[in-house]
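Quick one: structure tokens for this chain, please?
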Amino acid sequence: MKRHLLLAVLFAVTFPFLADAQFEKLKDSVIQLYGVVMTADSLKAIPSVSVTIKGERRGTQTNEQGVFSIVVQKGDVIEFTSIGYKPKLAEIPRDLEGNHYSLIQLMVTDAEYLPATIIKPRPTKEQFDRDFVNVPVPDDALETARKNNDESKRRVLARTLPRDGGENSNLLLNNNARRATYYGQTPPQNIFNPMAWAEFIKAWKRGDFKNSK
């Protein structure tokens, strides 16, 4: 029991010193990194460059003047990436004195070469004229609207497209009103209605009853 008590006392006495030493070591390894990223050929600032610590999910970006600032540790590897430029790496010195470090990072343009495109002429003018005339041209919005407003097209759309909420509501209200109007009596039959026969004949002539394949 006395041995455990002695160990506890020794730990309580030495722990603050160990914690202070660990804190001083960590404090000494933390660096405030300042820098600017520019083009290597014209020394122009590059904005929106990603500045990340390699192997960690932490980083920042350069501002409009190409300037950035980030907290790193000694020995960290900083990666600079931007679209149109080759990525660059910069290592923070391990034997750095102090807690501030600045650098100027130059980046080189990354040229991308596309595969060659070979343009061949038409063999004859007649073939070009024939192909130009026969090329199918898709309908624009105005032509599509004109076709959809055609009477026959509207009838087809009315039969095939489902009703929306407003149409279903109107149909339900009309059916309820019809049932309320002829409540307690026999509703009239359209077979004796001359107007219904006239509409039937018109629909027959139009071909509304033909089976569409």
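DSSP finds six helices and seven strands in the chain.
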